[in-house]
Amino acid sequence: MKLAIIGGGAVGLLAAFYLGREHDVTVVTRTAQQRDLLRKNGVCLMKEGQEEGVRLVKAAAFFEKHEYLKHDLWVVALKQTMLPAFFKEWRHCAKLPDMLFVQNGIGHLEEAKKYFRASAILGGVITHGAMKVDGNVVLHRGQGALTVGALGSRSDLICRLLSEDSQFPVREADDLERLLKRKLLTNLVVNPLTALYGERNGELLKRESWRENAYQLFLEGAAALDLGRDEWEQVVRVMEATAGNESSMLQDIKRGKETEVDAITGYLLKQGAKNGVDMPLTAFVHRSIAGLERRGENG
């Protein structure tokens, strides 16, 4: 298939490297500078500090719409904070390719379905660990999978995406909504707490007080999402598997960037209010991350 990877961040570069093994991939970047870098040098993948390989890919800047408008599928790898501008840019276009969204959160899929009625909307969860090192360099920090499903009726695009690649398997979700809820619950526990403590994921399990805070935050999220307490074991497994990783929210705070807090804690606070669930700890971490963001904006 002809795939356009919308976004040249860590997830976009990682997906481009591996999906480029089987598909014709174009990476769509925000800047012409990154576009030129990718055209010249391709995507460089690193593991454990060593270069693993280079994948030559096509590249286009966002404004070069003719370069990717007729692709079979857009893999939208933008951060949540960039989606409102993406929706605004394309909402009046009558015919667009089908789209796979791989962001944290859930609410954006309903927004996409509302704006892009003529396109099949897929949701995906990527459990790999990745960090962008340079405009064309991505560090693969943890093995995982890409799991995809359709919002609504099943799309034949899913069959064409499925892959048994041992380094980047693509699987089909049995229940997309539940999959997204479980990922959101893990994000709720890991992202804001690691950002507040300034520590890697695994540290949440090492200190008794931090582990208890993580569990209490989990309980609030599970209640808001109507998930059982047995989901805690899965959250712990993720923290153990990504123990040495920095969460995306911690990376954003360190760099003074806007975080995805509204798509994670903000969304869950709305769900809690809707379902009559009291979420004082979630509200606290939401306000705290917002405060850290403002501090970063003020230098």
UniProtKB/TrEMBL annotation:
Catalytic activity, reaction form: (R)-pantoate + NADP(+) = 2-dehydropantoate + NADPH + H(+)
Q: Give me the Gene Ontology terms describing cellular component.
A: cytoplasm
Q: One Pfam family from the UniProt entry?
A: ApbA
Which terms does the record give in the GO molecular function aspect? 2-dehydropantoate 2-reductase activity; NADP binding
Alphabetized, the UniProt keywords read:
NADP, Oxidoreductase, Pantothenate biosynthesis
Which Enzyme Commission numbers does its entry carry? 1.1.1.169
The kind of enzyme this is, by top-level EC class, is: oxidoreductase
| Matches recorded under Gene3D superfamilies | N-(1-d-carboxylethyl)-l-norvaline Dehydrogenase, domain 2, NAD(P)-binding Rossmann-like Domain
Which pathway does it operate in?
Cofactor biosynthesis; (R)-pantothenate biosynthesis; (R)-pantoate from 3-methyl-2-oxobutanoate: step 2/2
For the biological process aspect of GO, one term held by this record is: pantothenate biosynthetic process
InterPro entries this protein is in?
6-PGluconate_DH-like_C_sf, 6PGD_dom2, ApbA, Ketopantoate_reductase, KPA_reductase, KPR_N, NAD(P)-bd_dom_sf
The keyword NADP belongs to this UniProt entry's keyword annotation: yes
NADP: is it a keyword of this entry? yes
- Specify the Ketopantoate reductase N-terminal domain's residue ranges: 4-151
Q: Where is the Ketopantoate reductase C-terminal domain?
A: 177-292
Q: Which family does it belong to?
A: Belongs to the ketopantoate reductase family.
- Described purpose of this protein according to its UniProt entry: Catalyzes the NADPH-dependent reduction of ketopantoate into pantoic acid.
The protein's name is 2-dehydropantoate 2-reductase
Provide the species name.
Evansella caseinilytica
The opening ranks of the lineage are: Bacteria, Bacillati, Bacillota, Bacilli, Bacillales
